[in-house]
Amino acid sequence: MFAAIGILLQLLVYSSYAINGPICNYKMFPVFTGGDKDEFVNGVEVDKITKYIFTAGKSQSGNFCPAENDHGFIYALDVNGNWMWGNFFYNVSYAVQEVTGIQMSSNGTYLMALGNANSKPIVMTLSKTDGSIKQFLTIDPIPAQTETPTYYLYSGIYLDERDSQDGQTYLYLTFSMNLAYTINIIRILNNNLGEKLKIDWHMHYNKPVGAPPAFGNQPRYLFNDNDDDKNFYIVGQYNLMGSVIKFSKGNANIKYRLSFMRGSITGLGTFGLTDITTYAQAQSGQIYGCGENQIDLVSGIFRIDQLGKVKYLTLFSISGQRIPCHGLTYDDEKATSTILISTAQNAFKSTLFQDDTVTDAMLYQFSDLGYLTKAKHITFAKSDNKISTNLRFSALQKIDNYYIWAGTAAGYTTEFNQATFANSKTNPFTMRYLDDTNITMKCIRDQDIKITSSLLSYQESSLYTQYLSSLPITADGIYKLMNKFVAIYKSPYSGGFPLQVSMLIPRPCSSNSANITQTNYFYGQKAKQYDLFKSGVIALQQKMSPEFEFVFQNGTDSKKFANLGINTPANKSIVYVQTNDDRLVGTQKMVLRGCDELNNLHEINYFINVSTNSAPEFLVDIQTVWSLSYNDNITYKLPDFQDPEDNDQGEIYINSMENQEFPKFVKYVNATKSIIFNPNSKIYSGRTYYFSVVLKEKNSDYMMNTYYLTIKMNGDVIDEGQEMDNATKIQMTIPYLNQNSEGTFMFSHPVNMKFIQNNFNKTFKVYANNTEKQREELRGLQIEWIEGSNTTFNFTARFQEPYLLGLLSKRDDLLIFECLNQSLIVINPQDEILASTVASKRIEMQFDFRDEKMQFMRSTSLALYYIMIAIIAIQFFLLLFKNVGFLPLWTLIEYMQLIAFMPIYNFKLIPYLYDLFKPFLISHLILFDNSKIYEELNNDYFNINYEYYDLPVSKLIQSLTNICILVMILVAANIVIFAMSKSLKASSYGIFLLSRLSQFRYNTYLRLFMLAYFDLTFFSLMKIIEVNNTTTMRQVALFISYAFFVISIVAPVFIVAFLLRRFSVLSETAGKARFNSLILKIDKASRWRVVNIAFFFGRRLITAMLLTLPIDSEYIFLQYIFILTTSHSYILYLVAAKPYQTPLMNGYILANETFYSALIILIFIFSDATPQIHIKVYAGVALIVSIFLLVLANLLFIAYNVWRGKQRLKDDIQKAKQDRIDEEEKERKEEEERKAKKKKEEEEFSKMPDESSNNMSQNIDVNTTSQLQNGNTTVSELILNKKKTKIEPKKIEDAIVENDISQQTNKSTPSVTQQKNNTIKPAAKKQSTYTLNKDKTSDKLQRISSADINPKNASTKTKGKFSDDKSSKSSSSSGFGKEKRFIT
User: Fold this and answer.
1) What's the sign of the alpha-carbon dihedral 887, 889, 890, 892?
2) Could you tell me where the Basic and acidic residues compositional bias lies (predicted)?
3) What CA–CA distance (Å, rounded) separates 1218 from 1338?
């Protein structure tokens, strides 16, 4: 049942194997791109806001960028692997040769790119959403320099959108220049992207005096200080040492420089880091870096704090091999850093692929103390496909739980695909990787790495570091301020242009992929169809789950351009393409993709070439102004025309102009391409008319040229109203519109139906007006023209959301046909006129199963029929096998019966909700949605509510037939078991059969009666009120109906009366066994609890009677009032009486009734009392939830019963009985104490405070005192003293013994006062005494009233409590009270 309800809840959530589900979505990566030559990747960046992934580098491919010379590129993917955009860049006529680094601006507004163009540094500020250039800056040496500088560019760029000190916008960049590798650090004021652009300061950082020329300076990264926004860092190489340098933003002062020097350390060799190739910064400001010693071939990862102090340095190496660090990320939550390295050395790899000629990528994860905690080996290679992974620096990022990196490769091998790029050495790829995947996500070839400790060493960092606390700025020294050394130019003539290739297909992790040959479409034309079946890819499409998607490569929905038919089986393989948007001109790359139940990804790539298009034009100008007189008859032939693209035929028609009256005397003859002017009525005189001639493509409603014509009529104006009084009024009506959106449109007089047929969209506008007076366009309108008819045509409408129409009775949803130009359709415009230009029809509830949601609910309903049958069958056998009772099964069926008929109450549910209730009809033995019995009655309904519910008479007959079959099966089973028990009575098997035979007296037939009671009563009443009794068969059915209706009233009354009258029968084991199905798990200690069965029959009897009321009856409101009040009453009864044996059972039944009551309350929302449609939609969801909770309560209770087992459930029942007895005994004692206290207060109040009374009181006190001293006390006084004393609670057995002894004592030892006066007697009180009655057949706990022990008190009743007197008398007369034994 969980799976079934889950199907319904998919109205709000997607399937687990949908394309955006986590398992299938993981297979969207890696993504490859590139051309037929080499590409190089220089960096990757992620935007945490849009979750875009940017990859940058340069290309030498002429089919990726426009030529085979160097072109810088950037492309963007979203986190789901969709291609968002990809650009190469130009400034004037110079290409951006390479993008060396990218970084998001401080607030994430822009993507900043550093590169070179025309051998000069350039900075691009890009839109992250489409890659367009917002600002293009060029750094150029001023003319005073004598030599052309050489620039060495990396990723040193940062845009501070708002400085923390002065609020300005500053651009920071760094690079090396000339052979001296002088570090240049520049801050540029860049408010509003160039509104105010100038160099704020420019610093040179040279090598120390005497440093060898080969000692380079490489400022790789420039980034902000997370701990102090007034500072920034540069990380890279300084004087052949890996260095971290901290600067002040305002004045460029160096705060410190940390360098990893290379030196010979005794016992350790000559190690150190000559370069820091990657970094990450924690939120706290601590810096994590990774670099290498390119001389000694050692790499290392380190952590430094905000003051530049090294916290750890971990080195790793293998003899004679370089292990470069390509990227590093830090996870603040897990306090771990992860580096991306690459190597061909097998010692650093896993056993997945061992080949020292192939370079693979590895992820190494370190703790905050520098210890390796995890390592992964990721490869594109396989034994038969030796593909190396090529990585450069700034290659690793992290977004959510995914690692993101980019690089190049000459091919790939995954678990699903294998490819080699034959004409290219390296193609770019972007990887999204989850290092902790389950087996269903497997595609990327990866494996855990087990690293030997000999490859790692944790070093004392002070042996390798050099710390410089500050460095002064000098006029001519190592660190100096430059003035007018370079200039910054802003170029308005730059732009980004789309790459010629997007992602390469197939996607490496797709299980199946297909490419459809590029198809052509001219924009503006009508929808063009492409058949996937004919393309040979329909089998692949059928593998996808229903949640497949048809999207552009950027992941956006393609419905406004291309969509897949889903309305009928015939069009499910048809792709419809249509657009009027000229921005889509070009090749549109589409993908139809989805996953199957095994989470395999399938893709169909579909490229559509959208060509430019334009409307046809007349070869010469047409005459647009005409002057006419009464009775002129002029024929004007239009000139020839031509379509510029020659891709379609042209067609012409005339049309009215907005807010202008169309000249009724103008007609267009298509055969001759002529316009006829014939103003044959005087009412046209003196007026000016306007109309248009439309020249359009035949297959387009968009590509058209419109020519506006003016007609000036000569003469004086004549009153048109007087002229048209005698004209024939033509009525437009919609006489018929059914719930399947099929209707008929009719004119009262003949019209030009041929013109309407050819020009329907020009003559009529068809739409719907909802109850809130809002216009809704139709999704479609199919017209069936009736041959030879000039007055009528049939149509089938398709509404936007048909299931939301017709839900209100007092407000109308209207279907409207609006005539746009009546003069075009009337045959005689001078003598005929439309009475109204609008025809409307109320839209009743629509059951249009062409709609996707209606279709889904109908198919789900059909599946749930069999699921519910299976659930009930499994429950039956499970409970039978565990022998824990059938209470949950029968309870579920009973509530299913009540719920199943809720849709035929006089409410209008949302049409798709009717299918939600249908599976519950199996509780009425309607087991199939299509009835094969009396098929001629499949369209015969009791009233419209039954038609909405699709509950025809044939289904009711199906229910009656199945009831009869069930009766015959049970009778046959009874006979067979009886015969077998007689023949095998001497065997153990015969004893078993006798025990089963006892269930037919009377449990089996009583349960059958309860199961069929609702339906048979309902069917009987329906037949009784039916007026058609003409045939003998109908008369026999009427007689049987009267007979059962009488039985349906008499039988329950007899059963309830019998149980209440012979209540003591339920004290016997045999008695309870006979009626167990009636009082299943009911506590038999009180008649008040057994009354539960009366409620069962009464509710169903009256509900059946109310369901037969005609919907136009003035008493129809009683349906809702009755079910609501009875449900609430039953809830109160359950809370007060707690009729079932254990609190859990009472809670279970109460939960079921509560959810049923919630359904009753919610269903009222579907009346006109709630006119808001959106509230009805929410109520529909709440209905689904309530039904789910009701079924869930059943499943949980069954699971609990099965888990507890038979014996423990019996123990629970015994404990619950004991607790109930203790509680009732406590209440009884409290009641007696309350009465005694009240009596005492009344006695004290009745005493008179006069003198004689005081004297008498004194005498009594003296006598009393003397009696107490002598030990004489009356029974009344003893009782009074006893009430004043707090009695210690005792067990049931102790109370029984004490009561028995006290009675004997009172009988044998009367008080002195009784002997003397014989007038004072104790007040007669009814007491309940509990015993453990052990008879020969049962050890169950029985309750015996005090009337059985003391006959004198038998007639005494306790006020406010239920009396069990009749039960006691009946028990005595039946012999059940003769063998009472008191256990002491």
Assistant:
1) positive
2) 1226-1250, 1333-1342
3) 16
